[in-house]
Amino acid sequence: MLVFKNFKLILILCLTLGLAPFFPEPHIWGKIKWIAGGAKGMQFADWFDVLLHGFPFILLLFALIKKIISK
User: Fold this and answer.
1) Per residue, what are the HEC states of 6-59?
2) How many angstroms from the chain centroid is the CA of residue 12?
3) How many CA atoms lie within 13 A of 33 on its CB side?
């Protein structure tokens, strides 16, 4: 797929959608800490938020794996 070859686009997605909002801490980081703490009180919207903010990083992981395997 073309999207797996375009690392610049994937990195831009990670730095924008993946980390937004940036202050006081990246949103995905706060969600990961919440999940690591037991995910108590997380609603469906919070899990969906983790999926949306985490997708660029999952895409980056798949692109790196595909690049490593293809060599």
Assistant:
1) CHHHHHHHHHHHHCCCCCCCCHHHHHHHHHHCCCCCCCHHHHHHHHHHHHHHHH
2) 12
3) 6
Tell me the CA end-to-end span of the chain in Å, nearest whole number: 16
In angstroms, the CA 19 to CA 27 distance is 6
Total number of domains constituting the chain: 1
Give the per-residue pLDDT at 50. 93
Q: Domain of residue 8: give its range.
A: 2-70
Examine the pLDDT at 3 and tell me if it is beyond 80.
no
Q: For residues 67 and 65, what is the distance between their CA atoms, to the nearest angstrom?
A: 5
Note the pLDDT tens digit of each residue in 20-69.
888 888 889 999 999 999 999 999 999 999 999 999 999 999 988 988 88
